[in-house]
Here is the input.
Amino acid sequence: MSLMPTLFTAHGNPMNALGGTTFSRFLEGWAEDLPRPRAILCISAHWERHGLAVTMSVNPETIHDFYGFPKELYLITYPAKGEPEVGEEVIALLGSGGYIVDRDRSRGLDHGTWAPLRFLYPDADIPVLQLSLPMELPLSELFTIGELLSPLRELEVLIMGSGNLVHNLSRVDFEHRDARVLEWAHSFDDDVKEWVLTRDHQKLGEPWMSSPVGRISHPTLEHYAPLLVAMGAGGSSPVTFPFEGFEHGSISMRSIRFG
Here is the structure.
């Protein structure tokens, strides 16, 4: 039986959710190359908390977790169902590794999840869950969490990390989507690509120490961290980079497929 691949997808500026960009057009075609999942488990940059939790709502709301954008962005809904049965599988798998996972029955889907999914699966007809990013754990443990989740691939669950491999809002040229890419951003993006290809877990787990521009690229690590869960779940599966590029001069939109 073939395994479901795991993904790391960029999401970038929330305005991408309105469509009409190079990246949104890529997402519209990406699903054609993927087996259809039974459910989707997303690890988004936009759900950090102390400890692990999984969403258990049957009808998760669409969370508009951003400010100062055009009205039409706040009118978007992504009415995918939840799937508590898969949530229980997540709890059991992580529990086998000694992790305690809370059941969050009220949280919906943040834009790190629905913004890419509305183009990948525009009919919203696949159940979606989210797993939180545990703030207190070192990055290296996120590989372990991904490895524990890997059996979900045999159950046709698509594990998807959502973030950006370069993300520093203080260095973004918001006025120009096609602004010239800054040298330090390109350098870090290239570093991460090499570490993923060589499966260098030590460097991936210490990006601030492993690259001279690591801290500029990520003042905080929440947009980077979902990569490690996706990579851990991907195991030794082949790696491809179906999208490479930048927006606004310094936001990496690189997306990765494992398997």
Observations:
- The two ends are 13 Å apart (CA to CA).
